Amino acid sequence: MSQAESKNVILIGAGVLSTTFGSFLKEIQPDWNIKLFERLDGPGLESSYDTSNAGTGHAALCELNYTVEQPDGSIDVEKAKEINEQFEISKQFWSHLVKTNAIENPREFITPLPHISFVQGVKNVQFLKKRYEALKNLPMFSDIEYTEDRNKLAQWMPLMMEGRSPHLAIAASKIDKGTDVNFGELTRKLASNLETHDNAELFYRHEVVGFQQRADKKWEVEVRNLDTDNVETHVADYIFIGAGGAAIPLLQKTRIEESKNLGGFPISGAFLVCNKPEIVQQHDAKVYGKEPPGTPPMTVPHLDRRYVRGKESLLFGPFAAIGPKFLKHGSNLDLFRSLNRDNLLTMAAAGVKNLSLVKYSIQQMLMKKEDRMKELRRFVPDAKDEDWDLHIAGKRVQVIKDTQDHGRGFIQFGTEVVHSKDHTVVAMLGESPGASTSVSVALEIIEQNFPDYLEQWSGKLKEMIPSYGESLIEDTKLLNKVRKASADTLKLNEK
Fold it and tell me: How many other CB atoms are found less than 10 A from the CB of residue 65?
């Protein structure tokens, strides 16, 4: 491609999704011009920040919401296989960046850590055993272990077994190949990599305030410099909105057809945190439980060992709460400003349909520390109030939309990519497991919005992601090959 055909791309937001997509563009089309705008002082300061999320490398190893029990009693494992493959794809891309010295010191952002599923009560034990039976013969999960033996459980998670009643039925499954990921550190590394690119510019403290599409399909993007209050107009062939909770209001400002009948339900996350070394050392895993009946997937309780900037801690939660802000550093007017004539009925329908969720979120918001400690003691029976502090994490805005299957006002849990019909605007919406699957999201964007370039890009994509175009679900030999290569490069075989 000649320089005359070079395109201008604007990335909005400096989180893990924008910096991942930007890093892709740098590799596959280095002559394209990239401008990234972020309203805060640096990269990864919202949902991608070190402690704004639980840091789980989501690979469906322990998250029970990816293996749902069906009415006939069977366990649906298809979502688990999909999520696992997507995380393997992420690791391949990160490995490529490490091997090419685009980013350094992988152990600063990814650490090997066992992933454990833990359940209590006869019914949940039966479910976990069925899940184990459904997964153990699949190559992706072949190293899964299962036990109801309390001595074995005490080896796996000593902190959680100390002081536990011997009368309640309990069980756990474990896979050692899990990870803790500092997505904040990863984002900073990706942003630094992007800054080294001759055709990329990163602007912090710059807020996108408006869009106008021209007759030639290019976009004029109005950007305010928050230090000077000056507004400048930048022209782009393509816009990527990866602005976390702000993605929905920004998408609405584009006025594209796909932004209509779309809204967001903001949920804050909070965790109990323990920083005492003598306690932290007793728990070396991410342990996920089962969400309470009638609650959404993001309410799954889990107790995590975290590795952040050389410090180790324990994290328990999440505790959800509702509020009007779409961002942790947002405005109390965010929710109200997002309402318009196109989505008002959609939002109203969502409120009526999900009264239980609203009620649950309000209850969570009103919880006192003793209530949260009571939940923690289901995991750590001997937990003491003075050892744990409350930490407010990031915002997750659940997508609300109208669908053919679910009708008006459906809350879409998980991640969603919205594309304009002319492929000039892409927005990333939603929540977990977005960060873990960010590379697959970038690939989806490339495949759906740049079909004319795929042939010339395919060789480079294959170089970056050796499994590209093939199925890790179907090809066990390839799965084992790329998994070993990623583990070696990312130093996941070293504790």
Answer: 19
Q: Which two tokens stand for residue 272?
A: 């109990």
Q: How many residues does the chain have?
A: 495
What six digits make up the tokens of 473? Answer: 């679900």
Helices 438-449 and 16-28, packing angle to 10 deg = 50
Q: CA-CA distances (angstroms) from residue 103 to 265, 442, 483?
A: 35, 18, 19
pLDDT digit string, tens, across residues 6-35: 999 999 999 999 999 999 999 999 999 999
Q: What DSSP letter does each residue of 241-289 carry, written as one string? A: E--GGGHHHHHHHHT-GGGTTEEEEEEEEEEEEE--HHHHTT--SEEE-
| Number of C-beta neighbours around residue 267 at 10 A | 23
Q: Is 95 helix (H, G, I), strand (E, B) or coil?
A: helix
* CB distance 113 to 107 below 8 Å: no
pLDDT in tens, 190-220: 999 999 999 999 999 999 999 999 999 999 9
Per-residue DSSP letters for 465-491? STTTTS-TTT-HHHHHHHHHHHHHHTT
Which helix (DSSP H) or strand (DSSP E) does residue 382 occupy?
Answer: none
Query: Do the beta carbons of residue 269 and residue 393 sit within 8 Å?
Result: yes
- Neighbour-count burial of 257, counting CB atoms closer than 10 A to its CB (0-12 exposed, 13-18 middle, 19+ buried): exposed
Helices (H) and strands (E) counted in the chain, each on its own, are: 15, 22
What is the average pLDDT score of the chain? 90
- Closest alpha carbon to 70 in 82, 60, 79: 79
